[in-house]
Write a structure and sequence with these properties.
Length: about 80
């Protein structure tokens, strides 16, 4: 089996919780790439790129871990590709 690259956009539940959310997300996920996406009026989203084994069978488990963080407002799958 190979590996897949997965890109997520993670939004904080409150504007002032971005830094706390970012730290908690990065504690859970080993991200290959981390970017800030300025949305509007001081609101930032965290864009992370993760490499994971193809044998995992999907991104549901990782999405559930991310949405379980109290400071996370939403998690959006931006893309998936095979390496």
């Amino acid at each position: 089996m190979g590996e897949v690259i997965v890109m997520f956009k993670v939004m904080p539940s409150e504007v002032d919780q971005y830094d706390t959310m970012k730290q908690k997300v990065l504690d859970i996920v080993k991200a290959e790439k981390v970017e800030e996406d300025y949305v509007a009026f001081g609101l930032k989203a965290l864009k992370i790129t993760v490499v994971m084994p193809d044998s995992k069978g999907g991104t549901d488990e990782l999405e559930q871990k991310l949405t379980a963080i109290p400071e996370v407002g939403s998690v959006q799958l931006e893309g998936v590709g095979r390496i």
